[in-house]
Amino acid sequence: QVQLEESGGGLVQAGGSLRLSCTASGRTFTTYKMGWFRQAPGKERELVARITWTGDHKNYADSVKGRFTISINSAQDTVYLQLNSLMPEDTAVYYCNSVLYGGDEYWGQGTQVTVSS
After folding, report:
1. What is the pLDDT of residue 69?
2. Disulfide-capable partner of 108 in 1, 57, 79, 96 (CB 3.0 to 4.6 Å)?
3. What strand order describes the sheet that includes 78-83?
4. How far apart are CA 113 and CA 117, in angstroms?
5. pLDDT over 90 (residue 101)
6. d(CA 92, CA 39)
7. What CA–CA distances, in Å, run from 93 to 7, 13, 45, 57?
8. For residues 79-99, average pLDDT
9. Is the dihedral of CA 61, 65, 69, 72 positive or negative?
10. Mean pLDDT of the chain
11. pLDDT above 90 as % of the chain
């Protein structure tokens, strides 16, 4: 089992920045990759960014490339998402995700990001 605890969401004006954090606990030693997804009202959950546990591979949704940065501190079992140049369309609940070797997948409870225009 893996537990994920997110923090860092909030209300920000367009053009502003936020930093999300997600700390994993439990069976983290078998983690393959971690990432952030988001879900806006009335829309499906979508991938925002993902990173391997070693930090050597990252991928981003086209809509956030150049604005968001994912990073990981494996020693502290924590993944970060730096959100810059935020736009109202970035408003969503952001979920932390962990995938283990073997395929088990876990989700955090979500943190709300609201961007006002």
Report:
1. 98
2. 96
3. 2-7, 18-26, 78-83, 68-73
4. 13
5. yes
6. 5
7. 12, 16, 9, 24
8. 98
9. positive
10. 96
11. 92
Tokens of 61: 């949704």
DSSP notation for the chain: -EEEEEE--EEEETT--EEEEEEEEESGGGEEEEEEEEE-TTS--EEEEEEETTSS-EEE-GGGTTTEEEEEEGGGTEEEEEE-S--GGG-EEEEEEEEETTS-EEE---EEEEEE-
Question: Hey, what are 88's tokens?
Answer: 């109202």
Digit-coded pLDDT (tens) for 7-53: 999 999 999 999 999 999 998 888 899 999 999 999 999 999 999 99
Non-local CB neighbours of 114 within 8 Å, separated by 6+ positions: 10, 11, 12, 91
pLDDT at residue 94 tops 90? yes
What is the residue-wise DSSP string for 86-98? --GGG-EEEEEEE
